[in-house]
Amino acid sequence: MAEVKGGGESTVTVLLALAVNLAIAVMKAVAGVVTGSAAMMSEAAHSVADTLTEGLLLTALRRSDRPADRRHPFGYGKERYFWSLLAAVSIFVSGAVFAFYEGFRTVFGTPEEQSSPVVGYVVLAIAFVLEGVSWSQAVRQVRREAREEGRPVLVYLRLSDDPTVKTVFLEDSAALVGLLLAFGGLGLHHLTGSSVWDGVASLAIGVLLAFAAYVLASTNRGLLIGRQADPKLVRGVWTYLRSGVPEIEEVVDLLTMAVGTDRVLLCVRVDFDDALGAADLERACVRVSAELRTRFPELDEVFIEPVPRTDPELRSRVLNRYGDAFRSGGS
User: Which N-terminal residues, if any, form the signal peptide (predicted)?
Assistant: First the structure.
């Protein structure tokens, strides 16, 4: 919950990752020039991509917190997904493409001599320690937030609507794996004298970065299109409306969409008791809307529409969208 639980900590996590990646990028670039290692140069590009990513994530955090206005009545929460999507593109273009280029050039080009491999080993070791610091911060935040939601870490990462900490966690994890790949390529080149191993390591780093970019792009694409809210929230709202509101006889339709990190738009169609008068119906809608916001702080806007449960066209649309799961309050 970015504004409540993660805004400040997410910013700290991103700033720490930015500082670490910038320092590492400079070290790797210098080591790549000194050693002539394709894998080291690929790792330098990897760190440059990560640095650009952190800059985009900071932009996302700042711009998505702007309040709603006349032109954007539901706020700017989805800006976080847009900038995070650009971050995924940055990882692919700045990191994966360059790593593939270096790998193919080394594997299929003229064999290259390796010089001063010790410099590369030292830089990789320092980079691993620094990346570990950034990764530890991301892991702490992910574990804490997953624990607060009562979910395993992997489930939390899959369902979370905050792309910033997920991006930092995934890119730092990829960075640690990439450093091991670079170390392997550098070491095998050193032991065998063949630069092919260096090129293979660079290609592996490219595959790693392409996979990370794909996962992040897929996540943010779904959120930008308009993903349903957390299933736990949907079930909670459904249960409350069916059993906690005496004026409601049946929930006919329930629509949710994430409009930002921990900001959800709710549209619900319900069949009210026919004995209610117009004034009673108005008061019930106002009261239920307020109670929903109190029970579920993530709800940003709530729209309640009275409808008859027997309307055949509406019933058909609901069943086509949700199937039998809707009858049982499923998501």
Answer: none
pTM, two decimals, is 0.76
What integer pLDDT is reported at residue 3 of this predicted model?
A: 36
pLDDT in tens, 63-102: 888 888 888 888 888 888 888 888 888 887 778 888 888 8
Q: How far apart are CA 85 and CA 94, in angstroms?
A: 14
Q: Where in the chain is the domain with CATH 1.20.1510.10?
A: 2-225
Predicted local distance difference test score (pLDDT) of residue 303: 93
What CATH code is assigned to 2-225? 1.20.1510.10
The average confidence (pLDDT) of the chain is 84
Q: Which residues of 22-35 are buried (b: 16+ CB within 10 A; e: fewer)?
A: eebbebbbebbebb
